[in-house]
Amino acid sequence: MRIQKYSFGVGDRFCHEGVAQLKALLKARDEFGVEFVPVWNKSNREHQIVGTEPQGTRDEADAAVKALGYTGQYFVDADHINLKTVDRFLDCSDFFTIDVADYIGKSGSMEERFLPAIKEAGKIYRYIAGKKGADNFVTEVSMDEVDNAQTPEELRYILREIAKEEIPIQTIAPKFTGRFNKGVDYRGDLQRFEKEFEEDLQVIDEAVKEYGLPDNLKLSIHSGSDKFSIYPIMGRLLRKYDKGIHIKTAGTTWLEENIGLALADPEALKLAKRIYASALSRMDELTIPYATVIDIDTKELPSPEEVEKWDAQTYARTLRHNQRDPLYNPSFRQLIHVSYKIAAELGDEYYPALEKHSEVIGNEVIENICDRHIKRLFSI
After folding, report:
1. Shared-domain flag, residues 61 and 202
2. To which H or E segment does residue 38 belong?
3. Cα-flanking dihedrals φ and ψ of residue 265, to 5°?
4. Chain CA centroid to CA 118, Å
5. 1 domain residue, yes or no
6. What is the pLDDT of residues 1-39, one digit of tens each?
7. Mean pLDDT throughout 126-131?
8. Both 304 and 374 in a single domain?
9. Which residues of 27-43 are buried (b: 16+ CB within 10 A; e: fewer)?
């Protein structure tokens, strides 16, 4: 199984926006002439928080494809799995993001720091291959959830050892410098990111030739949603080196659901406001799992009483990621990003609201993926 040049991870906390997500990628194909393969992804952590099973993501993907008569390639990603969590994803996934960040050492030689992680990746890959057959899935290795970025020299070593483990890796997610916080733009030195990204593309090209790795090997950008300032950089370099990319997004679709509800009707706006008020009161609980990938300034968070006075446009503009809008509030957006657990708890109200207002929400999802993300990557 071989993934095409460009792919886009369309995470969906509640598995309701598959059609809108696929429409967004088809719109990007028609407008920019670039075909992105959809990869529906949802992690074990997200399933646990929402109370869902991986089969739901497969059902969502298959239903979207059928509804739109889509005949292209598509995948369902077992996102950030390890040996303890992989079993529940085996039957319904054909893309496996093997996360070995916990096995990366913080000091010592490259061998001491990275070899245990690569050995673990090999063990997980062989386990999946033994269950599914080696030709029936795409393999990604993820090393992004660590404190320090990997240098190009370290990436070269990692790829060499992955080749020795005979892992047919097609995407790799390294750690870059800067902050890849959830739901907001990249924070860091853009010139340094550009240098790292270009050097990593060169390393991958050399590793394919020297170590016999699959010739479609490409970088995977995790927490790629909303990192608008690096998209033009990545797009320019991908064209320069004629390379592919996998961009993984997740919570951005849940945020668009929230915006859509706010705009849909007064009752749905009240539901969105209730979610925020509850999130504010449970902030510590909700932010702990995401502590390393959010930076919320509590002084910037409006009180529930203030939010209660907002009209639909004020709520939507405060949440929508438009940095030119004076109402846009990154701290508000990040708190909503991690508050999807509350929406899950309100399932008897939340899910019917998604169904009722699917058209309004879908338009927000399409605009977000196509116009705010992919357009930045391929508009010259």
Report:
1. yes
2. strand 37-43
3. -165, 170
4. 23
5. no
6. 999 999 999 999 999 999 999 999 999 999 999 999 999
7. 98
8. no
9. bbbeebeeebbbbbbbb
| 103 lies in the same domain as 192 | yes
pLDDT tens digit sequence for 300-313: 999 999 999 999 99
Looking at the structure, tell me whether residues 229 and 285 fall in a common domain: no
CA distance linking residue 371 with residue 227, whole number of Å = 13
Average pLDDT for residues 41-69, to the nearest whole number?
A: 97
Q: Is residue 380 over pLDDT 70? A: no
* Residue % of the chain over a pLDDT of 70: 100
- Distance between alpha carbon 220 and the CA centroid of its chain, in Å? 10
Pairing of strands 138-142, 95-99: parallel
Tokens 């075909």 belong to residue: 35
Range of the domain at 144: 6-252+367-378
Using CB atoms within 10 Å of the CB of residue 120, give its burial: 0 to 12 exposed, 13 to 18 middle, 19+ buried: buried
Which residues share a beta bridge with 141?
98, 172
* 51 three-state secondary structure: coil
Percentage of the residues of the chain whose pLDDT score is greater than 90: 98
Give the number of residues written for the chain: 380
How many domains are contained in the chain? 2
- Same domain? For 31 and 161 the reply is yes
Give the CATH number, domain containing residue 170. Answer: 3.20.20.70
The pTM score is 0.97
Cβ–Cβ under 8 Å, residues 183 and 252: yes
Place of tokens 């598509």: 74
In a domain, 204, yes or no: yes
Token match 């390890």: residue?
A: 82
Average pLDDT value over all residues in the chain: 97
- Chain position carrying tokens 């029936």: 136
Residue 174's pLDDT is 97
Distance of CA 285 to the CA centre of its chain: 22
Q: Are 193 and 175 within one domain?
A: yes
Residue 288 contacts by C-beta under 8 Å, 6 or more apart in sequence? Answer: none
Same domain as 268, residue 208: no
**Nearest CA-CA partner of 207 in 156, 141, 143:** 156
The per-residue pLDDT for 251 is: 84
Q: What's the whole-number mean pLDDT along residues 49-71?
A: 97
